[in-house]
Fold this sequence. Notes:
2 domains
Amino acid sequence: MIAGRMKYEKLPVKVSHETIYQYIYSYPGQKLKLYQHLMLSHPKRQLKYSRRKRIVPHIYKISNRPEYINNRSEFGHFEDDITFFKGSKNDNISELVERM
C-alpha cells in the first residue's frame, strides 16, 4: 500500500514493496515494532510458498519396532522403501534390501 501510494502521489522517490518489507523485518524495524502497523501483524516474515514442518507420530518411528523383527535371520526377508517426487512421473527412488 505504501509503494502504491508513493506512485499515486508521484513522489520523486520510488520504493518497491519488497524494500519496505525488508526494512520492516530487519533489526532496526524489529526494534521499532513496525510489523504492528501491517494489515497482518506477524513479528516474523512468513514466506508464501515455504515448506511446512511434518511431524511423524511417535507410533511410526523405527525405534518402536518390535525386537523380534531386528533379530530375524531367515532367508528371503526384504525391506523396501520408495520415494515419489511430486510433479514427476518418471523420477522415483526405490531401495530394496535383503535382511540376513
